[in-house]
Design goal:
The complex is a heterodimer of chains A (119) and B (375). Chain A is mainly beta. Helix content of chain A is 6%, strand content 26%. Chain A is built from one helix and seven strands; from the N terminus they run ββαβββββ. Chain B has 375 residues and is of the alpha+beta class. Chain B is built from ten helices and 18 strands. In chain B, the strands form five sheets. A six-stranded mixed sheet of chain B has the order 8-2-1-12-18-17, sandwiched between helices. The chains are: A mainly beta (119), B alpha+beta (375).
Chain lengths: 119, 375
């Protein structure tokens, strides 16, 4: 994984270190940072591929608006990395394409559902 | 008409459509197809624009339960929609994502379902048996739509229903209009319409336009414009709130009256109706009710996150049906206003444009039913 980043933490940042796991690799972040900031500072990405055209994207607006930073955070797909603060031991995976909806556990039938033919 | 118009100055278009939403653009495209020089005068980005806030249904079932002519008009438009969408794709390259594989109206409670079935059966009688629908019990509904929840009463199924992407539709119609030489003017709202010798002058803040004829397709703005050319358009806004959730893998096979999934996977929910004047905001209370109903219909939606919401204003006549009328006191001024600008787009670009262009099809369109003087 890439380790060179154009994003540098301010030397005066005295926040405690936090270790998160990004695609199975340990990444050192700082308390109070967002997942998106930690991933950018570590030089990692692209962090998702889009549902429609499969193009690669990385965090952009860093303020919750553009949805480019979607990642799977602690098992929760389509999470906004810029709106989620890092926590020790957090498991982060990049979002690949469209999110699967959890199957309806009430009936087995729903798992057999076929996609609409025109989608 | 041209010579009369020439007397009052340069005639800039044979016909000008006031309103650049889905209704105005559909009429404008149809008039262009019939060889007219068409201008569209649009309020611009600050317009209320139901065309951008709507739910995207091309819908038939249950429409016109108290007006058989409206049921016929809606079904006619649904039948014309395939060719209309194909024509847009051919001329612009834009696929507006039309699917017409049928639609559901899901009822949570038995009495709600019974009322709906009674209504559709009454429509079937009105149309001498020619009104296709099916009643689905929970098991039959689950066969069609496996994601449906365990506590719904059932659904009605309309084989002629469908949906479309209204934003791509708007974009395709604008592009086709401009490519065909149409003039799209976004200088702000028309404030005044004057007529002289069979031609018209439109005035806004700091601008005027001359036109041979004029079509009023300004949505809620038609109310004040219609009165200036001897027409009656008693329109009131009715707010609908819409929720948009994240894109997810295909969950819904068919659109229904409350929830649909777009071709890209976005979930759209909305079924509220509020009389709140010109307020197109949102309220947590109504959004929560919409979300709760959607989750009861499709429990998996509880796991799906909302990303945005909006309010939009429907354009409603007192009976909910359209007005299509030429002014008697100001011939050459036409009123075209309706609630269902998506469903009716194909009929607006086809037979309604034919009528405005001068074809003698008012009887076949049953336009006497859609006269503004019924109010």
């Amino acid at each position: 994984m890439a380790t060179v980043s154009n994003f540098k933490r301010l030397p005066a940042n005295a926040a405690a270190e936090v270790c998160i796991w990004v695609e199975g690799q340990p990444v050192t972040a700082r308390e109070g940072e967002s997942v998106a900031a930690a991933v950018l500072a570590a030089g990692l990405g692209p962090t998702r591929t889009t549902p429609v055209s499969d193009s690669a994207r990385s965090p952009y607006c860093m303020m919750g608006v553009c949805f480019e930073c979607l990642m799977e955070i602690d098992g929760q797909a389509n999470s906004q990395g810029c709106m989620t603060a890092v926590e020790e031991g957090m498991q982060v995976r990049f979002q690949r394409g469209i999110r699967a909806v959890p199957a309806d556990t009430d009936t087995e039938k729903s798992t057999e559902k076929e996609a609409g033919e025109n989608r | 008409m041209m010579s009369a118009a020439a007397k009052m100055g340069r005639v800039e278009a044979d016909i000008t459509v006031i309103g650049g939403g889905l209704v105005g653009l559909a009429v404008a495209l149809g008039l262009q197809d019939r060889g007219l020089r068409v201008a569209v005068v649009d309020e611009g980005d600050l317009a209320l624009r139901a065309s951008r806030g709507n739910f995207g249904l091309v819908w038939v079932q249950g429409k016109g339960d108290t007006c058989p002519a409206y049921a016929r008009l809606s079904r006619r438009s649904a039948r014309l929609w395939g060719d209309f969408a194909a024509g847009l794709q051919e001329s612009t390259g834009i696929d507006v994502q039309l699917t017409q594989r049928g639609g559901l109206f899901i009822c949570l409670e038995q009495d709600e379902l019974q009322k709906r079935v009674d209504m559709l059966e009454s429509m079937r009688r009105q149309h001498d048996g020619d009104y296709p629908f099916e009643v689905l019990d929970p098991a039959a509904l689950r066969d069609k739509e496996p994601a449906v929840g365990p506590t719904v009463a059932g659904a009605t199924w309309g084989p002629e229903d469908g949906h479309v992407n209204p934003l791509l539709l708007m974009r395709a119609m604008v592009q086709r209009f401009l490519d065909a030489g149409g003039q799209l003017l976004t200088d702000g709202p028309v404030e005044r319409i004057e007529s002289h010798n069979g031609a018209f002058r439109l005035q806004g803040a700091g601008w005027t336009r001359e036109t041979g004829r004029v079509v009023l397709a300004a949505g809620l703005g038609n109310k004040s414009l219609a009165a200036q050319v001897g027409l009656n358009a008693p329109l009131e806004p009715n707010r609908g709130q819409v929720l948009i959730a994240e894109r997810v893998q295909p969950l819904l096979n068919y659109p229904n009256g409350h929830v649909r999934q777009t071709a890209e996977g976005t979930i759209q929910c909305g079924d509220s109706k509020e009389d709140v004047g010109f307020d197109c905001g949102t309220t947590t209370e109504v959004e929560a009710a919409i979300a709760a109903r959607a989750i009861r219909m499709f429990p998996a939606l509880e796991q799906v996150r909302l990303v945005r919401s909006w309010g939009a204003l429907r354009v409603m006549t007192p009976d909910g049906y359209p007005i299509y009328q030429q002014s008697e006191s100001h011939p050459g001024a036409y009123l075209v206003t309706c609630h269902s600008g998506v469903t009716l787009a194909a009929v607006h670009a086809g037979p309604i444009a034919d009528w405005i262009a001068g074809e003698n099809n008012a009887g076949e369109l049953e336009l006497e039913v859609f006269h503004g003087d019924r109010f």
